[in-house]
Amino acid sequence: xxxxxxxxxxxxxxxxxxxxxxxxxxxxxxxxxxxxxxxxxxxxxxxxxxxxxxxxxxxxxxxxxxxxxxxxxxxxxxxxxxxxxxxxxxxxxxxxxxxxxxxxxxxxxxxxxxxxxxxxxxxxxxxxxxxxxxxxxxxxxxxxxxxxxxxxxxxxxxxxxxxxxxxxxxxxxxxxxxxxxx
Length: 182
Known about the structure:
Elements: E1 8-11, H1 17-28, H2 30-33, E2 44-45, H3 51-59, E3 63-70, E4 73-83, E5 86-94, H4 103-118, E6 123-129, H5 133-141, E7 145-152, E8 162-163, E9 169-176
Parallel strand pairs: 5-6
Antiparallel strand pairs: 1-3, 2-8, 3-4, 4-5, 6-9, 7-9
């Protein structure tokens, strides 16, 4: 299978927890995250996730940690969850060395397909730190719209990282799925 071939998608299991944590941390934190463009290293220190957090996602009803692999190697992951008639998309991470190679775009499309085809969701929602303008623009190019709805960053909860600035907040984005009106 070539490096440009479509990845294989599958649901994560408990045996995948450590690999998922390592991937997420490498994509968002520290020097390894700086190799890719999705790093939050300038905004946050500390952890992005941990084994207990990923394990909890695996145990939730209407929740799926979706993996993208090639030849058994983890390339990317995300978490999707059914929330009423919408899906929620989060914990999206692509190996920093493979960012900009189409893996993330393919995984996002698969997550949208699962939400629509398997859960009958009419929209996909997500929250993005509003200071991540490049990431917001990437999602907009894939059909997501800024809603103007915000929620505060969970300051003081180290499970979400240690903020390097005091003005962080999340903006909600939404995309109708398969022609549905969100």
